[in-house]
Write a structure and sequence with these properties.
The chain has a single domain, classed as P-loop containing nucleotide triphosphate hydrolases (Rossmann fold, 3-Layer(aba) Sandwich). 38% of the residues lie in helices and 29% in strands. The protein contains 9 helices and 12 strands. Strands 6-9-10-3-11-12 form a 6-stranded mixed β-sheet, with helices on both faces. It has a 4-stranded antiparallel β-sheet with strand order 2-1-4-5. A hairpin with a 2-residue loop joins β1 and β2. α5 packs parallel to α6. The longest helix has 15 residues. It comes from Candidatus Defluviicoccus seviourii.
Length: 249
């Protein structure tokens, strides 16, 4: 579903990704861990097409289609979703308006008619009920005044409504207490599906206790330097990244 081929990228002229290769199959959840500065968030931003992150080599594909030359909005319409480490606030724009515009942009790209306001609210309530959420969040401006846990739950709601093929979750556990982490993890687990792949980027093993991945990869110095099952995350919790960082040097 997600295939990354020998990806190289720079930020402000500095090489950050240095030949990253990874395949996440349909229905799989893969986790990427690594020390600070390894390139984890850079990978997320490169996939999403953020300005200032220049690809200097390689390619990446979603469902067999290269997205490298597409604009960020076209990548989203092709099925790529990015959950930010620090979700932004959008004052004056309600969640309902924001999500309906996003859904309708996707529908237009597929040649489907827009959802009107009532049709959208019905869809949103169905998704929120399945995730154990109330529709109160729809009335609020996007992320304005939200707690850390509310911002992350709001992103999970976006994921549920947009139904991407590949979801990249950039440090979803950042800023969450234990209860909020478990709430978000339950929602993410509810969205695991045979035709959806997840790439979870995290520093810590605690997230992977709640969202058990199929594979864990260690990123150091811009490359994947180790891979294994969920037990690899537990090993890192015990021993740290020193051995992998040395191997990448």
């Amino acid at each position: 579903m997600l295939e990354i081929r020998d990806l190289h990228a720079t930020v402000n002229g500095k090489a950050i990704l240095k030949g990253l290769t990874l395949t996440v199959g349909a229905g799989e959840v893969h986790a990427i861990m690594g020390p600070n500065g390894a390139g984890k968030s850079t990978l997320a931003y490169v996939l999403a097409g953020r300005d200032g992150y220049e690809v200097t080599g390689g390619d990446f594909l979603v469902d067999g289609r290269s997205l490298l030359d597409l604009a960020p909005e076209d990548r989203a319409q092709a099925g790529l979703f990015l959950a930010f480490q620090y979700p932004v606030e959008i004052p004056g724009v309600s969640n309902s308006t924001f999500l309906r515009e996003a859904v309708n942009a996707q529908r237009r790209s597929r040649g489907e008619p827009d959802l009107d306001a009532l049709q959208f609210v019905k869809l949103a309530r169905q998704k929120m009920n399945s995730l154990g959420m109330t529709d109160e969040m729809l009335k609020r401006p996007v992320n304005v005044g939200f707690s850390g846990g509310e911002k992350k739950r709001n992103e999970v709601l976006q994921l549920a409504i947009l139904e991407p093929k590949v979801a990249v979750m950039d440090e979803t556990d950042s800023g969450l207490d234990v209860d909020a982490l478990r709430t978000v993890a339950r929602a993410v687990n509810a969205l695991r599906a045979p035709k959806r792949s997840f790439l979870m980027i995290t520093h810590y093993e605690r997230l992977l206790e709640e969202i058990v991945p199929d594979r864990v990869h260690i990123l150091a110095d811009g490359r994947i330097v180790g891979s294994g099952g969920p037990e690899l995350a537990r090993e890192i919790e015990r021993t740290g990244y020193a051995a992998y960082a040395a191997a990448a040097a």
